[in-house]
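This follows on from our talk about sequence and fold. I would like you to pick a protein and set down its sequence and fold. Go ahead and set the record down below:
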Amino acid sequence: MTTSTAHRVAALTRQIARLQAEIAELGWDTNFAMLTRNAFLRRCRALEDGARQVAFVDLEAIHTQNLLYGYAEVDERVRAAFDLPWRHEHTVARWFSGDEIAVLFEASADVQEAEARMIELEANAGAQGLGVAWDTGLWDVSAESIEEAMARLSEEVRRRAIKEASEAGAGRGEAAIADAELATLPRRRGMVERMQRLLGQGQVAIVLIYGDLDQLGHINAIHGRQSGDLAMLAVLHAIRDEVPEALVGREASSYLICLEETTLEDGFLRAEAIRGAVAALPPLTVGGESTPLHLSAGVAALPRHAASARELCRHAEEALFRAKEDGGNCVRLAQPQTMVAKTSHYGPRQLDRLATLAEAEGVSEAELLREALHHLLIDYARHRKGMSATLDG
């Protein structure tokens, strides 16, 4: 073998090793020692038709645990909680956020075995100081997607959490009820998945209202975190009073409000009604300082502004950001956008990973890049605004 050939072989070997490492990273979550969502979806989509038992697990108060004990400690507890003999027979993966886990049982498992395994998990998690809420169900591989099956189970887990919070309300207090009810709402990614399912069912007239409580950080700092949670709950109730038919999700201080078979114009009026209802809520008062509640909102419609649920979220959030820049307590419509060609340079590894991610998510590479730039610009603007406020103070 010549020297040049040996160098090429060595370089190719290193490249293969890097690709294998990247594939492993995309398929295995080292923090929780379980499959990633993408790897789980690939496995489920490769199954033959039939019925399988599945489970949805919600790790309760995981974010609080992270703050109290640190991520490394909590990750270790989660790994220990799922370190059960049956793990070698069935498939366990992270779902959306860090507190959601999906379980796919082997074909031979029946409902009694699935529930027994979950009871074992609940006991093992309790020994680690973790609480879990779960539900099991039968997934017909040919009749629905795994995303639909998990959404069905997660909704049941959240419904039970709301009921338990209401029943225990007298002993836990308003703030605890608020925290429990807010925690049951689907997150942004879950909302995207639900809206995408509506598109798959032929529903194309969708309006998304992206509403955000103004000055939540100020409310938490002046009136306390519990008052902030109660303010968020009051906004949620205002939303449900104005648009009871809407699908509602939450992301930080924002609410995602999905309306079916609604025009953009009607969606704007509904958003304005929500804004007015929030503005009419009693202000928070402490130590002689009064803080009124205000909501900013952005409104986007499909197919007018976007062709996918992810793009719809991005356009609605951009409209929300314009409402914030205009002083808040107002509603702004998404603006039609034209694509502008830009020359960009990316490394081969970046492009390979982008292609893998796009395939796993079922979207185009261009859509992922637009989404990434959108979040970069908003985060940068928020950072600059925060820096300016610090300097001004």
Q: What stands out?
A: The chain has 15 helices and 13 strands. The longest helix spans residues 365-392. Residues 55 and 136 are 4 Å apart (CA to CA).
